[in-house]
Design brief:
alpha/beta; about 40% helix; 8-stranded parallel beta barrel; about 15% strand
């Protein structure tokens, strides 16, 4: 009785263990809620705020419910919280979510340590507080509080069956966040673009790319012919035959040009330069990718957008390039690049030779006599570089990348700042631009003293923004200075100045342009009769209007055209997008720009396709037409226009071949007899290799074995079995070698799943195709994959592979096939020739390839009568 009273007293006073545990759990739940509200506030989420936070909290709770030992999800939750903190810091500077693609440039962070310290948000550490608390509680009190609780909720949580339910619910929740595509302009649409788990899962799986409408070929600017149509003008060739110096100025924005601070000119030398012999483009914009500075110089020299996967100089180092350095070399120029920093930074020392530079002078080639900010001062950089440049044969192309004006702008100029602006980013930035201006004046002095001035064109531009609108102090002070709300339409506006001695009165050109426009513009001024490369830009000296896609610091699909800048919302919703007049700063309705948004996405995706498929090599070296390649560029994937073959012969079905058995001798014999379209089947060995074989059971009739041959344990065993018959076994790797050596052969490949690799048949199905995609992309325009079910079709499409024939077996009706043709990207379908007459409904689709399976060459004529595209002749045993 006394015990009951005591227990009763404990409950009433709040000292019960169960009560304390409930209070702790409630406190943790409250901390999670507040943490998510804080996270989404810092991430600038407006539309779908509550729903995004609710989804994150629910998903986290489900994950916690999976584990008996709560320290495990505690660690996982801490990792999630660290990613959240990284998200917030990345978003605060780059105005976009952190992506796994951005991590590809993580090795470049060492050189900008001071900048990172300056932009780091200490308040982001609050996102770790609840995670650390939960982890400590789960470890210290793992038995007393979280594992041996007598409360009903915690007792249920310990049951294995309940944890399995939570595991299943967690998986379903995470999968749904990735695969469900909600309607546009909906709260659900905002969630998949912004919610923590949805965004990062879609980013990792590659499913978060925005969709774009199909753009006609005439709307894709990167086609030959633009330059020839735009080179007619009074200034054509005004700099023909002269040396060229191009200077990429670190972080220079356009607002400092022709502007003053407290009555002082910020860039007095540049201002004087604009009055004569100079083309000044005041509506010029950055078009960087993930490589930031390096992608600015890449776009400038090549007129192609930098990659958002990682910095272009790294992942596409070995591509074939035909940009400005190469074009000038073809015209007799010597080419050299200068940058007084580490040669391997942004992979320049490896990338520059392929870009067309004969020489590259980096930090090790300079005498570090004066340091400012990240390294050698710009004054010393220009002085020492010019001494080197003078020794090069003329005409020369000298490409300079400056350093001193890098964030956080630790450079002192000659401006007298007010006390409020001293030691601020705004004040330091103005001083750094004033210093750069004086260094440019010194460089022009060297040119005049050396006698090279009259024979040299000098162009300079900013690489990217320096004053970030996402930094509150910067946004406030810049808005005060400019007289309007400072935003990305201001920050991304960089100057382009091209000085051509003797060209006449200074010209200010206000047509909008971007870094991809530099190549055709300088080609015009240098008198290029043609621009024999692939490019995305326009000649800004003659075009009346322009379209400038941008995507770093703003979301994919943003652009500038005319007087308008359109900024796609991070939510991915048109209703959240912004449109502003860059001249008057008036806010406009974004609804009228959906067509242009689709065009911007298409152009950027086409550029990505050019990079990934090394299109310049395909066109300029191999002689393929750009039109055929572009028409095959599907959203984020690979699709090639493969010529329809009237007869595809199975490599084990030709005259005199062993039924169901492949070998090198079969391929060679058929090729010599004129076959150029081969069908083959790949089968998996248990050790994870591929062998070319229709069916294991077919081997029994060739070998005297007591045991049934169901599969090969190893690839070595597969080779051994085949060699008994005195033939050369064809493995998957052997097939690749053969295909590479026979460039005029096409292939029609089936891949059987034997579930031999740990039960992961879906991985087996696409692994071979994925290997080709990553390591042998040159084969993909000669290969059609066969999908035997919807799962296979979906797997291939998920991999971005659309050269797929769907084999319509008996279980698929004409309606089923017609539906699949609408839902999936595919090259065509194939049916048993006996069933072809019943499937005429799908033949109404234009450009849809239909093949008929047969085991007889006599059916070639029948296929023609039925209107089939062709036949695939394979052994009867496998039809």
């Amino acid at each position: 009785m006394e015990e009951e009273k005591l227990n009763s007293g404990n409950i009433s006073t709040g000292s019960s263990p169960n009560f304390r545990k409930i209070v702790i759990l409630a406190g943790i739940a409250l901390a999670m809620i507040l943490k998510n509200i804080y996270y989404y506030s810092l991430m600038g989420v407006n539309t779908g705020f509550a729903l995004s936070a609710a989804v994150t909290i629910l998903t986290t709770a489900l994950i916690f419910g999976i584990f008996k030992r709560k320290w495990i999800p505690g660690v996982i939750y801490l990792i999630f919280s660290m990613i959240m903190a990284a998200d917030v810091n990345y978003y605060s500077f780059f105005n976009r979510n952190l992506s796994v693609k951005a991590l590809g440039a993580a090795d470049m962070l060492g050189g900008v340590t001071e900048s990172i310290k300056d932009i780091f948000m200490p308040e982001s550490l609050l996102l770790l507080a609840d995670a650390l608390l939960i982890l400590v509680l789960s470890i210290v009190f793992r038995k007393k509080i979280l594992e041996e609780s007598e409360c009903r909720f915690c007792s249920v949580m310990k049951k294995t069956g309940t944890r399995i339910v939570f595991a299943v619910l967690s998986v379903l929740m995470l999968v749904s966040l990735v695969v469900i595509v909600p309607e546009e302009d909906s709260a659900a649409g905002a969630v998949v673009s912004q919610e923590f788990f949805a965004y990062h899962l879609r980013d990792v799986t590659g499913i978060n790319a925005p969709e774009a409408e199909k753009i006609d070929m005439k709307d894709i600017l990167a086609v030959s012919g633009n330059y020839e149509n735009e080179k007619k003008g009074a200034d054509f060739g005004c700099g023909e035959g002269r040396n060229l110096i191009v200077i990429q100025v670190e972080a220079m924005q356009n607002f400092v040009i022709n502007n003053t601070y407290n009555g002082q000119e910020i860039t007095p030398f540049i201002n004087s330069l604009l009055k004569e012999d100079t083309f000044y483009f005041d509506s010029y914009y950055q078009q960087t990718g993930s490589g930031n500075t390096s992608d600015a110089e890449f776009a400038t020299n090549n007129s192609i957008f930098g990659s958002m996967q990682s910095y272009t100089y790294k992942i596409f180092q070995d591509n074939y390039w035909n940009g400005l350095p190469v074009l000038l070399k073809d015209r007799g120029y010597s080419t050299v690049a200068f940058h007084a920093y580490e040669g391997d930074y942004w992979n320049r020392e490896n990338a520059y030779p392929g870009q067309g530079f004969d020489e590259f002078y980096s930090q090790d080639d300079y005498d570090i006599t004066e340091t400012l900010g990240m390294g050698l001062s710009d004054s010393e950089f220009f002085s020492q570089s010019f001494e080197i440049l003078e020794d090069f044969s003329q005409p020369f192309y000298g490409f300079f990348v400056t350093l001193s004006s890098h964030h956080p702008f630790a450079v002192k100029g000659d401006l007298k700042l007010s006390k409020d602006d001293e030691d601020t980013l705004f004040g330091n930035y103005l001083q750094s631009m004033n210093y750069v201006d004086s260094c440019l004046e010194e460089l022009f002095g060297y040119l005049k003293e050396s006698g090279l001035y009259e024979d040299t064109i000098v162009a300079f531009y900013g690489d990217h923004l320096g004053m970030n609108p996402k930094t509150p102090d910067v946004q406030k002070r810049m808005s005060e200075y400019l007289g309007w709300d400072y935003s990305y339409e201001d920050a991304m506006n960089i100057p382009l100045v091209i000085h051509v001695p003797g060209s006449g009165e200074g010209k200010t050109i206000d047509v909008v342009g971007g870094q991809t426009d530099f190549l055709p513009t300088i080609a015009y001024l240098m008198g290029f009769e043609s621009l024999d490369t692939i490019y995305f830009g326009h000649n800004l000296c003659t075009v009346k209007s322009n379209f400038v896609p941008v995507r770093s610091y703003v979301s994919q699909g943003s652009f500038i055209t005319g007087d308008i800048m359109f900024k796609m919302a991070k939510s991915g919703l048109m209703s959240d997008a912004e449109a502003v007049n860059i001249r008057t700063h008036e806010k406009l309705s974004p609804d009228m720009y959906s067509q242009y948004y689709a065009k911007a996405v298409q152009l950027q995706n086409t550029s990505d396709y050019y990079l990934e498929k090394d299109i310049l090599r395909e066109v300029l070296v191999k002689g393929r037409t750009l039109e055929s390649l572009v028409s095959g560029a599907k959203q984020g994937g690979y699709y090639s226009i493969i010529e329809v073959q009237p007869v595809i012969e199975d490599a084990a079905a030709g005259e005199g071949q062993r039924d169901g058995l492949y070998c090198l001798e079969n391929f060679d014999r058929m090729y010599e007899e004129g076959t150029r379209a081969f069908a083959l089947n790949l089968i998996w060995t248990a050790d994870g290799h591929t062998a070319v074989m229709h069916d294991w059971g077919e081997l029994e009739k060739y070998f005297r074995r007591y045991e049934r041959i169901n599969s090969y344990d190893t690839l070595e065993r597969a080779m051994e079995y085949n060699s008994i018959e005195g033939i050369t076994a064809m493995t998957g790797s052997g097939f690749i070698e053969w295909a590479l050596a026979h460039e005029d052969a096409l292939f029609y490949i089936s891949i059987d799943d034997e579930d031999l690799l740990g039960g992961e048949a879906e991985i087996e199905r696409v692994y071979f195709a994925r290997t080709l995609k990553s390591s042998y992309p040159e084969l993909l325009d000669r290969i059609i994959f066969v999908a035997k079910d919807i799962v296979s079709l979906d797997d291939y499409n998920s991999e971005g592979l659309y050269n797929v024939i769907f084999y319509a077996g008996e279980k698929y009706t004409a309606d089923n096939i017609a539906d699949l043709c609408e839902r999936y990207e595919m090259y065509g379908t194939a049916v048993n020739i006996e069933d072809a007459a019943e499937l005429k409904e799908i033949w109404k689709k234009e450009e849809h390839v239909i093949y008929g399976y047969t085991d007889s060459y006599k059916d070639i004529e029948k296929a023609e009568e039925l209107g089939l595209s062709g036949v695939v002749i394979i052994p009867a045993s496998v039809i």
